[in-house]
Design goal:
The protein is an all-alpha fold. The protein contains six helices and two strands; from the N terminus they run αααββααα. Strand 1 (about 120) and strand 2 form a beta hairpin.
Length: about 230
């Protein structure tokens, strides 16, 4: 009779290695600055492709780029909020213009004049265009049409719509400009971030190669305070 052999113990599941660099930009910028400073003051030699001065400059550029991208985003927020408020106001009060036309003409006949007022049919509803670039054009038509139809003296006549049309056009242009600036700054920051991460990872290996017996202590001295972030 064969004696069953004991089952071999299961091999332990290897632990996943956590990243040694922060995932977000704010702590990464702080880490890069600290590491650059520590490396500049240490005896650890430069890399063939990266000098100590290079990392110092790279860390500073990344921190500045991060701040610039955040500032551009903050600038856009009030513009976006005000545009949303204006959109709601315009959509809410356009009904009075349609009512004026209905009073002057039969309702179906009044709709024939809608294009003059910038009013279009979207999603089975007569309204100002949803796309902001087209809405800017429609709002320029609206006060002109109110005057042409002798409706400019009404409560929601030309005097009401013209300031809104002017403000809306300025905000849409400013929002587009800010969005372009932010996109550019974010792109620059992302490219610099890749370079920072590459440099910091190289330094981790550089420390390990030069201080094989005290790697962990040396990493902490350089600012790599955590195994994972």
């Amino acid at each position: 009779m064969l004696t069953p052999t004991p089952e071999a113990p299961l091999a332990p599941i290897p632990k996943s290695r956590t990243g040694q660099l922060p995932t977000s930009a704010v702590p990464l910028a702080a880490l890069a600055t600290n590491v650059a400073r520590a490396w500049a003051d240490s005896e650890l030699p430069a890399l063939l492709w990266l000098s100590k001065a290079d990392l110092t400059a790279l860390a500073a550029t990344f921190a500045q780029g991060r701040d610039a991208a955040e500032a551009a985003g903050d600038q856009r927020t009030p513009q976006s909020r005000r545009l949303q408020e204006l959109d709601e106001q315009l959509d809410r009060n356009l009904k009075y213009v349609k009512a004026y036309l209905a009073e002057e003409h039969e309702e179906d006949q009044g709709r024939a004049f809608y294009p003059e007022f910038g009013i279009v049919r979207e999603n089975k509803t007569y309204r100002l265009p949803a796309a902001r670039s087209e809405r800017v054009k429609a709002l320029q038509k609206l006060p002109v049409a109110l005057k042409a139809h002798a409706l400019d003296k009404k409560k929601y006549g030309a005097a009401y719509w013209q300031p809104l049309a002017n403000e809306y056009a300025i905000l849409v242009q400013q929002s587009a400009d800010t969005a372009g600036q932010r996109s550019s700054k974010v792109g620059q920051k992302d490219q610099t971030e890749k370079q920072v991460r590459r440099a910091l990872r190289a330094l981790v290996h550089h420390l390990k190669a030069n201080y094989p017996d005290t790697t962990e202590a040396r990493r902490r001295e350089f600012g790599f305070q955590k195994e994972g972030y």
